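Assess this:
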Amino acid sequence: MRLSRYFLPVLKETPSEAQIVSHRLMLRAGMIRQQAAGIYSWLPLGYRVLRRIEQIVHEEQQRVGHIPLLMPTLQSAELWRESGRYDAYGPEMLRIRDRHDRDMLFGPTNEEMITDIFRSHVTSYKDLPLTLYQVQWKFRDEIRPRFGVMRGREFLMKDGYNFDLSREDALHAYNRHLVSYLRTYERMGLQAIPMRADSGPIGGDDTHEFLVLAETGESEVFYDSEITDLRFGGREVDPDSHAQCRAVLDEFTSRYARTDETHDAAMFEAQVPEARRRVARGIEVGQIFYFGTKYSEPMGAVVTDGEGNRVPVHMGSHGIGVSRLVGAIIEASHDENGIIWPEGVTPFHCGIVNLRQGDAETDAACEALYKALVARGLEPLYDDRDERAGGKFATMDLIGLPWRITVGPRGLKAGVVELTCRRTGESEELAPEMAVARIAEIYAGL
């Protein structure tokens, strides 16, 4: 993409309504525009990041055998009355009526609808286990929407639902989701800590939420400092192996963060040596639940087991805040100059800065670099504007592309361009073809 032809409405001044780093930088970098309280338009740059994150979620869900579908955003109130949640959910649910005076709602979650789909089509234990998921826009009428996309009213979310014959099978699905989520967040450049949590209106006794440590997090957490050394890495875990998934769960939760709301501080102190105890704040970016037969029993989601008995299925749900993750990544990865995107979610793989636009040799070198990167399957952003070098560098730093290739007459005379890492600020001079090869190598394993 050539910046002269792109829609990137960057702001020099920080809007007064932005209270946290991610909100300020998303507005300044031209990623979003507020349309109403807690409701945003995703402008081209922000939309590209949103889709990168969504693609990683899809890939990791399907990697463990989960099946995508798409449910409507508007739901019938009758389904929620069957489960008993229509009146109990609270004012966060946006309740509406259609032209025929039927009660409807803008879905905040989809347990009832997915249960209705299941009971209509699955009748035998032979069709289990089954996990269905979607990535869909949802609406919760927050009383105080704030912090940009971190606590908006309309948000993009992955919600998945498992159906199993027994509690044991459903808990394996729970563990499998935890493993899948750890891999998902790591691909986005995040260290997410799984932490026991309250189930809230979703229900159920077993639930973990995933926190990304950041100063602006809403949750206060206690954690073992050694947890920052845990990485899922390249380990292969068989999603069908109960033992392997459980082992990962135990490893990642034996020293996980604990909140003063759900755990006695004395228990934490007894388990973790004083030298390793830390207190921090965390941003919730996902949550998994096992809730047994909470929905299947009242809504009649039953199957015939191996002995011919009709039994309610055991269920769980699993959410990832796709749009919230955009803000969380920025909170965890930025500096005073702007965003620093991890390679896995960057809107463009690298930037090309032309230091002397209009100079024939420099223009030709930039065009050659651009075409060479595209030929490698990469998506560069070429700043071909007639703009001062300082302005071009400021824009690149603000929007946070992880790599930048700078091209100028002086370097070209020596046969080199400058390759700069946004995270470290370190630069090296390379022949143009070597710079292209280096960028291609960086992204080859992602």
In short: The mean pLDDT is 90. The longest helix spans residues 167-187. The chain has two domains: 3-339, 350-444.
